[in-house]
Every structure is written in C-alpha cells, then in structure tokens.
Amino acid sequence: MFGYIKKIRRYLSTKNQPDSKKEPKKAAAKLSLFGSLDKNLALFKEYLGESSDVIVKEFRLGGDARTRGALLMIDGLVNNEIVDLAILKPLMYDTGFKLKTDSGALDIDSISKGFLSSHEVNKLSAVGEMLHDVLSGNTVLLVDGAKEALSVGTRKWEKRGIESPQTETVVRGPREGFTETLRINTSLLRRKIKNPNLRLEALKVGRQTKTDVCIVYIKDIVKPGLVEEIKIRMAEIKTDSILDSGYIEAYIEDAPYSIFSTVGNSERPDTIAGRLLEGHAAIIVDGSPFVLTVPMVFIESFQTAEDYYIRPYYATSLRAIRLFCYFITILAPALYVALTTFHQELIPTQLLFTMTAGLSGVPFPALVEALIMVVMFDILKEAGVRLPKPIGSAVSIVGALVIGQSAVTAGLIGPFMIIVVSITAIANFVVPAQSDSISLLRYFFLILAGLLGGFGITAGALFVLVYLVSLKSFGVQYLSPITPLSRQGMKDCFVRMPLWSMIKRPFMMTGKNNIRREPLDVSRRQKGEKDA
Questions:
Q1: Rounded Cα gap, residues 184 and 171, in angstroms
Q2: Which of 263, 311, 361, 377 has its CA 20 to 30 A from that of 508?
Q3: Confidence (pLDDT) at 421
Q4: Between helices 312-341 and 366-386, what is the axis angle to 10°?
Q5: Which of 126, 53, 125, 116 is nearest to 88 (CA)?
Q6: What is the predicted pLDDT for the residue at 27?
Q7: Dihedral angle, C-alpha 402, 404, 408, 412, nearest 10 °
Q8: Local structure of 12: helix, strand or coil
Q9: What is the C-alpha separation between 441 and 260, in angstroms, rounded?
C-alpha cells in the first residue's frame, strides 16, 4: 500500500513540474530577436537542429561593406531563382550599401524599400515568427545590428496541376477541380466570382502542423452570424495536426455521432461557387482538394453541378432517379427478406412459385442469406477501391461473377438474392454523397425486416425521418426547404425549375442580399413566337 502511495506522490510531483519539451516552443513564440547576428543564428540552429535541408547563407552586404547578413531558408520549399535575383544579387553587389554604411543610414526599412525587388516583404521581430516563415517556404533575412528581420516571399514546391475531379464527373460543364495547394484553390474561386465582396479570411490550425485554413464567403450574401460561428468552432480545435479537410469536418460538425454528415464537401470550383452564391461559407484546407461548405442540407446530396447546365425537365428526372436509387439501395434487401419471411401473400402467385423453386435447398434463412451477400458486396467494394486501378476493377468484376455463380450453383444462395444485391450495388453508386449513411442504413433496415417484417421497416423509416427532422447544420434545419416549408426553396429541391424562375435565394441561408436575379419577361418572348 505504501508503495502505491509513493507512486501517486511521484506522479503528482512530475505532473506539476514544467515540461521541458514544451518550454522551447513557448519561448520561441515570445522571445524577441537579438541585435547580434551570431546570437540570432545560434538561436535558429538551436531550434531547427542539424537538419540537412536547412540552409544558412552568410554574406556581406555590398561586397566589401562591414555589415554582415544571413539568409535562412529550407531547401525544396523556396524558389532559388527568386532568392538569387531578388535578394542576394541586390544585397551583395549594390554599391549603395557602401555609402549607406559609411553614413550610418543603413537599417531594415531602407533595405526593404530600397534594395529588395520582391513584392512580398514583411518585418519580423519575434523568433517564433521567424521560424514559422522559414518553415512555410519564405526566406528570412537577418542583418547584424538589427533587432528585426525581413521575411521575403519565395515559396515554391512541387504541386499537382489542375485536373478533372475524379469523384464528381460531369458530361456537360467545367472540367477543372481543386488541388492540394491553398492559393490555387482560392484563385479558382476568384475566377468564378469576380466580386469585391468575396472575402477570404486566413487561419492556422494545428499545434504541430500549423495548417493554413481559409474561410471564404460573400459579405452581403452569407447568412448573418455564420462566419462568426465558424470562427468560434475553429478556435476550439486544440489538436496537433490537421492533414485533410476531414479533420476540420470532424471538429466543427453539429452532430459528431450522427451517420449523416452535416458538413458538405466538393472538389469542383463551380459547385463551391454556386453554394457561396446561395449564402453558404466555404472552408479551404491547405493540402486537401476537398473544400467544405456549411451549412449543409440533406437535399444537397441529390444535386449535382450538371443539374444547372442541362434542361430543367431532364435535370428533374435525374433527381427523381437519384432519390429512387437511394431508397432502393437501403431498402431492397430488407423488402426481400420481409416479403419472403413474413408477407408471402403480397407476392404474386406465379412469382412465388418461381422464388420457392429457387430457394429450395438453400440452408440459410432469408436474413442470414441477405447478410452474407451484403457483407460480401461491401468487401468487394472496399477491395476495388483500395487496390490499384487495374487490379481493383478485375477483382470487383471477377469476384462478383465467380462468387455469385459459385454460391448459386452450390445451393448456398438463391438466384433472386443475387438479383436483389446486384440492384442494390448499382443503386449504391448513384448517390455517392450519402455512401456512408447508405451502408449503415442498409444493415439497420435489414435486421429490422428479419425480426419484425414490414412493421420493422415502417418503424425504422419513421425513426430515421424523426431523426432527420431533429438535425441541424449551423442553425439550419437539415431537411430544409421541406421543413420548414419554403416555396422559393422548393423550386430547387425535388424539382429543378428553370433558372429564370428562381428569383430569390433560399431564405434560411442568405443575408440581406437575397435577390438572385431580376425577373425575366418570358411572356414577351412567347408573344413574339406566336406573332412569328
């Protein structure tokens, strides 16, 4: 017992002691630069260590001048051409340094304004600022005798070019997609929305990664209070790393335990631009091609960018197909189990005889049979996604054909179950935005159908509907514009009305500027066509 008490006392004593590993980080953020170049260089090397990619270039300003200087940079993150032409060349070979040194007029401000030709030059006074800029790809200039440093924008690293998005392909529409570079993504949005009210606010999230995050919105269109709420939730993120926008989504969503996502995402600039023009706010994370949008409503999962580039009647029919496939993929196995186990009287007589003949000899009940096939489908889908493309497609196709045919031949699975699972699999890929919830809801309804039949399916559907009504995304009802009902919002819900008829933006998302476009006099055109 005394040994246990000693362990507790030792733990409490070590817990109250300051962590020596955390002290340098705090000191770096608050410590000011020295007036001595040697002390600043020693401090810089102490924090970054002997890393092979850290470059410290010492030189003399003006060639034979008495003033010493040093450039700090990370190899692979800087543009060497800019460093040589915009920084080193004017600082080393400009004869003006000799005159300014003799007259005592040389200081940081004169160097910034009179010698550096780069457009991005900032003054630094703290060691933490110097370390952050160097690790971000900038070049820091230290001058002996100056207590301030200059940070010059020299960022350049390998990046992926603008390509067609892989997850949101369209037949008609733009082919460009976001990349992993933050500034490229913001420029794509600037190209789409040439509006001075388009605002981009920069944040840094992650204690270790210091990931650049940008909040994008249109000032007079965004929902009042939305940007402030995003900032509050972002400020509450106290974590070491942010490696993808999915990290941000997990920290800011309204219902973290829900199977339904309350934060939208897309890798298409036109989709994000369209949502910004409806009053949404976008969150761009450096290193991720997926841009988040808030608030999100359920109907967004069934809308695509191509819906607004094609005829409204065809777009409406496509949305109906997506909704139909959504219900098919989550309910088809459950309905099959309920009909064959509890409600055979609802099956036509001739079809019932055919199904009975196919099920003769199958050793498992319908519920077990369906669970085996649904699990097998999920395994094949996961294998097709994770394996390399040539192998993945072959595994998916060959695996489905061979396993399905072998299971039917061996009498383990009925042929009708193969048809049901095939329809379920095809419908699953029609609504990729809800793929996470679809997989879980399929098992949920399947188990209810196997235990309670049609009553279980009805009770489960009612439970899911009530749950969806209770969900919110940044203060907006998840089932908007269905509840609360919005006449203007219903024009772009199940039915996609003509663009000229959608005069106002959805009321639950917009600010003071809720007019989307001026009314169009369609009757004048129709009258002209009749006269012609």
A1: 24
A2: 311
A3: 87
A4: 140
A5: 116
A6: 53
A7: 110
A8: helix
A9: 10
Q: Which residues contact 113 (CB under 8 A, 6 or more apart)?
A: none
What pLDDT score does 1 carry? 47
d(CA 102, CA 114): 17
Three-state secondary structure call for residue 305:
helix
CA atoms within 13 A on the CB side of 497: 12
| Helix or strand run (H / E) with residue 102 | helix 96-103
Question: Which helix or strand (DSSP H or E) is residue 332 part of?
Answer: helix 312-341
Cα(322)–Cα(303) distance, integer angstroms: 9
Q: Is the dihedral of CA 316, 319, 323, 329 positive or negative?
A: positive
φ, ψ for residue 292, nearest 5 deg? -90, 150
pLDDT at 3: 55
Residues 69/141, Cβ–Cβ less than 8 Å = yes
Q: What is the pTM of this model?
A: 0.83
CB-based contacts of 259, cutoff 8 Å, min separation 6: 436, 437, 440, 441
Q: Give the ranges where 94-139 is alpha helix by DSSP (H).
A: 96-103, 108-114, 127-135
Residue 96 token pair: 């003006």
Encoded tokens for 230: 């995003």
Residues of the chain with pLDDT under 50: 1-2, 4, 7-8, 11-12, 14-26
Among candidates 68, 65, 111, which has minimal Cα distance to 90? 111
Beta bridge partners of 141: 71, 150
